[in-house]
Design brief:
The complex is a heterodimer of chains A (544) and B (505). By secondary structure, chain A is an all-alpha fold. Chain A is built from 22 helices and 2 strands. The longest helix of chain A is centred in the middle third of the chain and has 32 residues. Chain B contains 20 helices and 2 strands. The chains are: A mainly alpha (544), B mainly alpha (505).
Chain lengths: 544, 505
C-alpha cells in the first residue's frame, strides 16, 4: 500500500495533545472551577486546531493512500508497531471526534452535571478523546485494540459517577458487554495474526495476507471480530446495553457515545474485518444484513414504545446504526460510502438530539414525554432546533441524514460479489418501511413535546411567556397568580430559559454541518470514495 | 569402617564455586545474620531500623544480580548443572528481591503500629526470599525441594504473625498443614521420578522420559509433582487454603504470599516442565489444560460472591494463576513453547506490580476504615482521590484493560496459547476470554464502590498514608502504567531463548 510520509508528527500531536491537557489538569487546584474548564476548552480547542490543520494539509487528490504515515517501533517482541496513518475513510471520523469533544467542552462551561468534580470529569473526557482519535489513526491491530479499549474506563466512570439514577447498573452493563466483545475480538486478532504466518500486526500486511486464509478459518475469525464490533455498534441483538447507557449517561457522555463511540464498531468492520477477511465477510454479509434490518425495525418499534425522550433517541440510534450496517453488508462501494456518510451524519444529528435532551432535562428536570409539551411556546428556539434535528434524523432530503439512509437502502438493491439478490431486495423493502416508522416516531415525539400548550406544572415559568405577558398586560395578573401559586407549592422549577450562549456556541457548528452536508454531500463523498473504491476493488480481487 | 569412609572422602573433589554467581544468596545470608544479631541488641524504640536495614539488604542483593546481568552473556553453571545462573534465573531473582523490598515498605508501619515482633519477622522474610532466589537457579529435584521448604516454612510462621488473633492462627495452621501435605505428595512424586530415571538432575530426567514410552511409575511421578506445585500456586482444586490464609494473615504477608510465594511455585513448575518433562507432554499438557481452565473459572466465579476485599483479592489471585498456567499447557508445543516461557515470565512480572499495588491500597485505606469490607471503600474518590485513582489503575490492570500493564500480560498469555494453533488451544482461549469478562465484573464492582458510592459512615476525613506505603504505591503505579504503555520495557528482560540446557522436545 502506498503511503505519504509528510509531516509525520501531525497525527501523533493531534492524538496525544488531550493527554497533555489531562496531565496539566491533574495538577490544577481543584477549587478553581473556571480555570479547570478553561484548560479543558483550551486543550480541546488546540486539538481541534490541529485537526483543522490536518484537514488543510490532507492531500485530497490521493485520499485512497495513507497520509501522515508513521511506522515506528513499539513492541518488537510481538511484532506490533506504532503504525499510524489517515486516509479518506478515517479522516472525517478523526476530525469529527475532535470537533465533538471541543463542542462538548464548551457546552460543559454552563452545564456541568450535578455530581460536581469538574476536574475529574474533564480529565476523563480528554482521555476519552485520545482513545477515540487513536482508534481512527491506528494502522496496527494491537495499537487499534489498545485505543479501542482506552475509551472503556473513562466512559464507565462518566456514566457511573455523573449519570442518572440507574447509573450503577447501566455503567456496569456497558462495561461488561463491551469487554465481552473485545475479549473475543482480541482472540480473533491473534488467530488472524498466526494464520497469516505471524509476520506483523500491521493492517497493510494483514490485508495482503488475510485473503489467502482458508474460507472456514476466515469465517471463524470473522465471528470473533463480529462479536467485538457488533457489540460496540451496537447491532441487534447485542444492543441492550445502549438504551440503558444512553439514558443514564450525563449529556456529555451521551453525545460522545452517540457521535463517536458507536462508530468505532462500524469503523472496525470497514477497516479491519471486511478487508482482511474477504471470504469471511462474504459468508457473514447476509447475516449482518438481516440483523441490521432487524435492528432497524426493532429500534423503530422500540422508539414507539418509549415514554422517555432520551431513551427514545437511544433506540433511534439502534435503528440508524442498522442502516449503516445494511450499507456495509452489501459489500459495494456504494453501500460502504453510504455507511461512512451515515456514520458522520448520525454522529452530528443524534449528538445534537442528545444535547437537546440534556438541555431539556436541565430545564424541566424530567424527560418524560407525557409531561413535556408546548416547548415551542416556552422555548421557541429550542423547539425549532428540536424540530430541525428530528427532520434531519428521519432522513429529510436536503439534510445530512438523508445521504446516509437513502443510498444505504438503494445499495441493497444490488449487493456485491454474488450475494443473494432476492434476500437483499427483501431487506431493502423492509428497511424502507423502517424509514416510515422513523418518521412516525420522530414526528410523534416532536408533536407531543413541542406542540400544544405547556403542561400545567411548567406553565408560566419561561422567559418566552414572561415576554409575551409583558407585551399583553391582560395576562399579567393571571400569570403572576399562577407563579405565586406554584411558588407556594414547591420551588422545584427554576425559570425556563431559551437556548443560551454556550448552547448556541456548541450547537451552531453541528447545525451548520447538518445543512452543509445535506445540501452538498459530495464534500464528504469525494474524500471517502477513492479509499472505499480501492477497498472494494481489493475485495473483488480476492473474491474473484 | 572409618577406613572405608576415609577412602570415600579421598574421592571428594572440592567443587569450583563461582563466588560472583552466588553473591546474591551470600548477601542475603549475611543479611539474615546481621538482622538477627542486631535485633537481639537493639532497644525496642529503635527496632524500626531493622526494616530499613532489611530493605537495604534486598537492594544490596540486587547489586550482584545486576552486575551478573551486565557481564553475563552466557550462563554460569555450578555443581554439575544443579545450580544455574542464566538470564531466566537473573530476571526472577531481581523480581523476588524487588517484590520483597516493596513488601517491606508495606509491612513497616503495620508491624510498628500493631506491636508485633519486628526483628523476627524480617529475619524470616529474608530466609523466605533467600529460598525464592535459590529457587530461580535450582535445576535439580533436591535443590528445588530445599529451596521450596526454605521459602515456605518462614511463610507459615509469617501467616500466623498476629498471634492473638484466632483468624491469623487459623491462617497459619491451614497454610502449614496443606503446605506440608503438598510437599509430601511432591516428594513422593519426585521419588518415583528418581527411581525410574536414576537421577535428580532435571536435564537427566528430561533425557530419560520419552513420550509414548512412559511407564506407570513415571506418569504417577509427573502427575504428583505437578499436583504438589498446584498447591503452592493455589490452582483449583488445590486452592482451598488460599482465601482463609489470605484473609487471616496480616495484609502485607498476604501480599507477599500471593505474589512472591506464588511466583516461586511457578518458577519451580516452569523449570521442571521445560527441563525435566519436555518429553512427557502427553501427560502434563492435558493435566495443565484442565487445571488452568478450572483455576481461572472457579476462582472468578467464587470471587463474584465476595464481600471482603482481601478474600476477593484471594480468589482473584487464584484466577490470575489460571491465566499464568494457561500458556504452560502448551509448553510442549513446538510452535508455542518459547512464547509460553515468555508469557509466564512477563505475566509474573506484571502481576507482581499490580497485585502488590492492590494490597498496598487495601493497607492504606483500612488504616482509616478499620474494615475489610468492599463497602467500606465507598466514597474513597471523594476523600482520597489519589488513592482512588491508584486503586483504579491496579484493579483495571488486573481486569486487563489497556493501556495498563495487565492487558499486555493477558495478551501475551493469549498469544502463546493461540500460537499452538490446535483446537485445544482455541477452546482454552475462548474459556479465558469469557473469564476476562467475568473478572471485569468483580473488579469493576469494587471500583464502583470507590467512585460512585458515598462513604458508608459519612466520614470524609482524609486518609493519612505513611511515607513507606506511598513509596510502595509509587513504585507499583509507575510499574503498572509503564509496562502497559511501553511493554518492550519488560519484554526486553523476558526475551528468553530458552532455559539453559533445556532438552529439545
Amino acid at each position: 500500500m502506498e503511503t505519504l510520509t509528510d509531516q509525520t508528527w501531525l497525527l501523533t500531536v493531534g492524538t496525544f495533545l488531550p493527554l497533555l491537557g489531562a496531565l496539566v489538569l491533574m495538577f490544577w487546584p481543584k477549587d478553581d472551577e473556571s480555570g479547570i474548564k478553561g484548560v479543558g476548552i483550551l486543550t480541546a480547542g488546540a486539538t481541534m486546531l490541529v485537526g483543522i490543520y490536518t484537514l488543510v494539509q490532507f492531500d485530497y487528490g490521493q485520499s485512497a493512500k495513507l497520509q501522515f504515515f508513521v511506522d515506528a517501533e513499539w513492541i518488537p517482541v510481538i511484532k506490533s508497531g506504532y503504525t499510524i496513518g489517515l486516509d479518506g475513510i478515517s479522516l472525517p471520523l478523526y476530525v469529527l471526534s475532535m470537533a465533538v469533544t471541543f463542542l462538548v467542552m464548551i457546552y460543559t462551561w454552563d452545564n456541568m452535571p450535578d455530581a460536581g468534580n469538574t476536574k475529574a470529569f474533564l480529565i476523563l473526557m480528554l482521555v476519552l478523546q485520545t482513545g477515540m482519535a487513536g482508534t481512527f489513526i491506528a494502522q496496527d491491530l494491537i495499537l487499534f485494540f489498545v485505543f479501542f479499549e482506552l475509551v472503556l474506563l473513562p466512559m464507565y466512570f462518566m456514566i457511573g459517577v455523573w449519570g442518572g439514577e440507574d447509573r450503577r447498573y447501566a455503567s456496569l452493563k456497558f462495561f461488561l458487554y463491551t469487554m465481552f466483545g473485545s475479549a473475543f475480538m482480541l482472540v480473533a486478532f491473534l488467530a488472524l495474526f498466526f494464520q497469516t504466518g505471524g509476520e506483523s500486526f500491521g493492517f497493510a500486511q494483514l490485508v495482503e495476507a488475510g485473503a489467502s486464509i482458508d474460507r472456514d478459518v476466515q469465517i471463524w475469525i470473522f465471528a470473533g471480530m463480529f462479536l467485538g464490533f457488533a457489540v460496540k455498534v451496537p447491532m441487534f441483538p447485542f444492543h441492550t446495553w445502549l438504551p440503558d447507557a444512553h439514558t443514564q449517561a450525563p449529556t456529555q457522555g451521551s453525545v460522545i457515545l452517540a457521535a463517536i463511540l458507536l462508530k468505532l464498531g462500524t469503523y472496525g468492520f470497514v477497516r479491519i474485518a471486511i478487508p482482511m477477511l474477504p471470504e469471511g465477510a462474504k459468508a457473514w454479509a447476509p447475516a449482518i444484513g438481516i440483523l441490521a434490518v432487524l435492528g432497524i425495525i426493532y429500534g423503530a418499534l422500540g422508539c414507539l414504545a418509549q415514554t422517555d425522550m432520551k431513551r427514545l433517541i437511544a433506540f433511534s440510534s439502534v435503528a440508524h446504526m442498522g442502516f449503516v450496517m445494511l450499507g456495509i453488508s452489501t459489500l459495494t462501494s456504494f453501500g460502504i460510502n453510504a455507511a461512512l456518510f451515515g456514520m458522520v451524519a448520525h454522529g452530528l444529528i443524534t449528538g445534537m438530539l442528545f444535547f437537546i435532551a440534556g438541555s431539556v432535562k436541565h430545564r424541566y428536570h424530567t424527560l418524560e414525554i407525557r409531561r413535556l409539551s408546548g416547548m415551542l411556546i416556552q422555548m421557541p428556539r429550542m423547539g425549532w432546533i428540536l424540530g430541525f434535528c428530528a427532520m434531519a434524523s428521519l432522513g429529510l432530503p436536503g439534510l445530512a441524514g438523508f445521504w446516509g439512509e437513502f443510498p444505504a437502502i438503494l445499495s441493497a438493491y444490488q449487493p456485491g460479489f454474488g450475494l443473494s439478490e432476492p434476500l437483499f431486495r427483501t431487506l431493502m423493502v423492509i428497511a424502507a418501511v423502517g424509514t416510515v416508522l422513523a418518521a412516525a416516531y420522530l414526528l410523534w415525539l416532536y408533536q407531543r413535546t413541542a406542540f400544544g400548550e405547556p403542561s400545567d406544572e411548567f406553565k408560566g415559568h419561561s422567559d418566552a411567556e414572561h415576554a409575551a405577558v409583558d407585551g399583553h398586560g391582560v395576562a399579567h395578573s393571571l400569570s403572576a397568580a399562577a407563579n405565586d401559586h406554584t411558588h407556594d407549592g414547591d420551588d422545584a422549577h427554576e425559570e425556563i430559559h431559551d437556548v443560551q450562549l454556550t448552547e448556541w456556541l456548541s450547537w451552531t457548528p453541528f447545525l451548520v454541518a447538518i445543512v452543509v452536508f445535506g445540501v452538498y454531500p459530495q464534500l464528504m463523498f469525494k474524500v471517502m470514495d477513492p479509499a472505499v473504491t480501492q477497498l472494494v476493488e481489493r475485495l473483488g480481487a480476492s473474491l474473484g | 569402617m572409618l577406613g572405608l569412609l576415609l577412602a570415600q572422602a579421598s574421592d571428594w573433589i572440592t567443587p569450583v564455586i563461582d563466588w560472583h554467581a552466588v553473591a546474591p544468596e551470600l548477601v542475603l545470608v549475611v543479611g539474615v545474620n546481621v538482622v538477627l544479631l542486631l535485633d537481639l541488641n537493639l532497644a525496642d524504640a529503635k527496632k524500626w531500623m531493622l526494616a530499613t536495614l532489611t530493605g537495604f539488604v534486598m537492594l544490596g542483593a540486587l547489586v550482584p544480580v545486576v552486575t551478573l546481568a551486565v557481564i553475563g552473556d552466557d550462563s554460569r553453571s555450578l555443581f554439575d548443572g544443579r545450580y544455574v545462573i542464566d538470564e531466566y534465573a537473573l530476571i526472577l531473582k531481581a523480581f523476588f528481591l524487588l517484590v520483597a523490598y516493596v513488601v517491606i515498605l508495606m509491612s513497616q508501619t503495620e508491624l510498628e503500629e500493631g506491636g508485633y515482633y519486628q526483628g523476627e519477622f524480617y529475619v524470616l522474610m529474608l530466609c523466605s526470599v533467600l529460598g525464592m532466589v535459590m529457587m530461580s537457579s535450582a535445576r535439580d529435584l533436591i535443590s528445588i525441594f530445599v529451596a521450596l521448604e526454605l521459602l515456605s516454612i518462614p511463610a507459615y510462621m509469617m501467616a500466623a504473625w498476629r498471634k492473638r488473633d484466632v483468624k491469623s492462627n487459623e491462617a497459619g495452621v491451614k497454610y502449614y498443614l496443606l503446605g506440608v501435605f503438598a510437599s509430601g505428595i511432591m516428594l513422593y512424586g519426585m521419588s518415583f521420578l528418581f527411581g525410574s530415571t536414576n537421577s535428580t538432575l532435571l536435564t537427566d530426567i528430561g533425557a530419560a522420559l520419552t513420550d509414548g514410552d512412559l511407564n506407570g511409575m513415571e506418569v504417577v511421578g509427573v502427575v504428583f509433582v505437578i499436583c504438589g506445585f498446584a498447591f503452592k500456586i493455589s490452582a483449583v482444586p488445590f486452592h482451598t487454603w488460599a482465601p482463609d490464609t489470605y484473609e487471616g494473615a496480616p495484609t502485607p504477608v498476604t501480599a507477599f504470599l500471593s505474589v512472591a510465594s506464588k511466583a516461586a511455585g511457578f518458577v519451580a513448575l516452569v523449570s521442571i516442565i521445560f527441563l525435566a518433562f519436555p518429553n512427557a507432554s502427553d501427560v502434563y499438557q492435558p493435566l495443565l489444560w484442565v487445571l488452568a481452565a478450572l483455576t481461572m473459572t472457579v476462582g472468578n466465579v467464587l470471587a463474584l460472591r465476595q464481600t471482603n476485599i482481601v478474600r476477593l483479592l484471594a480468589y482473584s489471585s487464584v484466577s490470575q494463576g489460571g491465566f499464568i498456567l494457561m500458556p504452560l499447557a502448551f509448553a510442549g508445543n513446538s510452535n508455542a513453547g518459547g512464547s509460553a516461557l515468555n508469557a509466564v515470565v512477563v505475566y509474573l512480572l506484571v502481576y507482581g506490580f499490580m497485585n502488590l499495588g492492590a494490597f498496598a491500597i487495601v493497607i492504606a485505606v483500612s488504616r482509616k476504615t478499620r474494615s475489610g469490607e468492599i463497602s467500606s471503600f465507598g466514597g474513597l474518590f471523594g476523600y482520597a482521590p489519589g488513592l482512588a485513582v491508584a486503586m483504579t489503575v491496579f484493579f483495571a490492570s488486573l481486569a486487563g484493560i489497556p493501556p495498563l500493564g495487565g492487558w499486555f500480560a493477558k495478551f501475551n498469555a493469549f498469544r502463546a496459547v493461540l500460537q499452538a494453533e490446535t483446537n485445544a488451544a482455541y477452546v482454552l482461549a475462548a474459556i479465558a476470554a469469557v473469564n476476562t469478562v467475568i473478572s471485569a465484573a468483580y473488579y469493576m464492582r469494587v471500583l464502583r464502590s470507590v467512585w460512585m458510592d458515598d462513604a458508608p459512615d459519612g466520614d470524609q476525613s482524609p486518609v493519612v498514608t505513611p511515607s513507606p506505603i506511598v513509596a510502595a504505591l509509587g513504585i507499583t503505579v509507575i510499574g503498572t502504567i509503564v509496562v502497559g504503555v511501553i511493554p518492550s520495557a519488560v519484554t526486553r528482560f523476558a526475551e528468553l531463548k530458552d532455559l539453559t540446557g533445556a532438552v529439545v522436545p
